[in-house]
Specification:
The protein is mostly helical and 192 residues long. It has two domains: 72 residues, Serine Threonine Protein Phosphatase 5, Tetratricopeptide repeat; 105 residues, Tetratricopeptide repeat domain (Serine Threonine Protein Phosphatase 5, Tetratricopeptide repeat, Alpha Horseshoe). 67% of the residues lie in helices and 0% in strands. Helix 3 runs parallel beside helix 5. The longest helix is centred in the middle third of the chain and has 17 residues.
Length: 192
C-alpha cells in the first residue's frame, strides 16, 4: 500500500485480499478508504456491504448496499444482498421488496446461475416468513431448478454465505421441493 496510498482501485484489491485472509475488520477499513478516494464506485460499496456483514456490522452493511443502489439501481446483486441483511434484521417485507426488485432486473443483467438462484431462494424464504407457503415452495423450486445446490444447506452456508436464520427457513422448504439432484458423473446418467 505504500506505493499507491491514494489509488482507490489498489485499496479495493488490497481490501479484497484482506477479506480472503479473514482479516475482515481491516478489509472494512480499506474499503472505506477506497470509497473516500472514489465515492462513486458501486462495486466497492457492494464489497463494503459484504465485508461489514461478515464482521456483524449490519447497520453499516445496509448503508453500503443502499449507497450502491443509489449509485446504480440496475444491478441485482446490491438488491439481493441488501435483502438478506434486512431479512436477518426481521425487516421481511422490505427484504421481499428488494428480492422482487433483484428478480425484475435479472433478465437484463450478467448475473451467473448461482446469483440468479440466490435471488429466487431468498424471495422464497421471504414469502415463507410472510406466511405465503405455497408461493414460497414454488419460488424455491425455481431456485433449485436454476442451481440444484440450493437443496444442500451445508453448501449454502459455505458457498452462498447464508445466515443460520435463512438456512432455517430454507430447511422448511427443501423437503417440499421435489427435484432430483444433478448427476455427479456420466456414470450416474440414465441409460436409454
Amino acid at each position: 500500500m505504500q506505493e499507491a496510498p491514494n489509488d482507490a482501485m489498489v485499496r479495493r484489491y488490497f481490501a479484497s485480499a484482506l477479506g480472503r485472509a479473514e482479516r475482515r475488520e481491516e478489509a472494512v477499513a480499506e474499503y472505506e478508504e477506497a470509497l473516500r478516494l472514489d465515492p462513486n464506485n458501486m462495486g466497492a460499496w457492494v464489497a463494503l456491504g459484504i465485508a461489514a456483514y461478515e464482521i456483524g456490522d449490519l447497520k453499516r452493511s445496509v448503508e453500503a448496499y443502499r449507497k450502491a443502489i443509489e449509485l446504480d439501481d440496475s444491478r441485482p446483486i446490491a438488491h439481493n444482498n441488501l435483502a438478506y441483511v434486512l431479512y436477518d434484521q426481521d425487516e421481511v417485507d422490505e427484504a421481499v421488496s428488494e428480492w422482487e426488485q433483484a428478480i425484475e432486473l435479472l433478465p437484463t443483467s450478467d448475473v451467473d446461475r448461482q446469483g440468479r438462484a440466490d435471488c429466487w431462494a431468498g424471495l422464497a424464504i421471504g414469502y415463507l416468513t410472510q406466511g405465503k407457503r405455497q408461493e414460497a415452495i414454488e419460488t424455491y423450486r425455481r431456485a433449485v431448478s436454476i442451481n440444484p445446490h440450493y437443496i444442500d444447506t451445508k453448501w449454502m452456508a459455505r458457498e452462498a454465505f447464508w445466515s443460520a436464520k435463512a438456512i432455517e427457513a430454507a430447511e422448511q422448504l427443501i423437503p417440499k421441493v421435489k427435484v432430483k439432484p444433478a448427476p455427479r458423473s456420466a456414470d450416474e446418467l440414465p441409460t436409454v
